[in-house]
Design goal:
Elements (H helix, E strand, L loop, with lengths): L1 H22 L1 E6 L8 E2 L5 E2 L1 H13 L2 E6 L5 H6 L5 E2 L7 H4 L3 E2 L8 E6 L8 H4 L3 E5 L3 H9 L6 E5 L2 H10 L4 E5 H9 L7 E7 L2 H4 L6 E2 L4 H16 L2 H9 L7
Parallel strand pairs: 1-4, 1-5, 8-9, 8-10
Antiparallel strand pairs: 2-3, 5-12, 6-12, 7-10, 7-11
Length: 256
Amino acid sequence: MKKIASCGLLLVLGAFTQWANAEQTLRFGVDPSFPPFESKASDGSLQGFDIELGNAICAQAKVKCQWVEMEFDGSIPALQAKKFDAILSAMSMTDQRRQQVAFSDLLYNTPSALLTPADSKITTDISSLRGKNIGVSQGTIQETYAKTKWASQGVNIVTYDHQMDVYPDLVAGRLDASVANAVSAEQGFLGTPEGKKFVIKALLTDKKIFGSGVGIALRKSDVTDLKLINNALAELHANGTYDRLTKKYFKFKVYP
């Protein structure tokens, strides 16, 4: 009799857990200006790898997904102010950010790059950069890299609200180069008619600045959501969903 009662209790608890999850909404903060990770389609809907991955995480966890648009530069303060539950917007997991937020397990790891006109003599050598205007997106690890490595040595670092705002000035010649995520630059600029005369001149490395890859950022106190996201992410790896999404968006491996 006790065994029957115990089984009944477990079934009730299991059903309650599923019901509770179904009622839960997971709000992701996103800056949709960073293709192919997150951007807007012509009809205004959100699209990109991060968007599909976030929706898959919610579906796997059996919770409702809600996307909250925000400016990347102010994303951590907005997270702390509880305007959303997590940041899913190609945020690199750096030591500096880990002091403020908790991160999920690794989502992907892609390099940063120096972009220049194809015929430019600019390289990563400081002598070729001195006196030049280098465009970066505000609040990014690329801005941190450029300012840390070059700003004190006579290189003019020009910040923009979004990386997509950098490219028109690069094409017009108001900028000499840019530091950007290599994948985003390749698919969001170099593959367009405007970007045909530009190249990735060099990939940039500095683990202290660039961190250990991209993760989902949460408030440190939100251990329940962190566990929910990591469990769902593990299931997406196990059932092949993650691999399917990466093959859809990338031509090379972005996960170890």
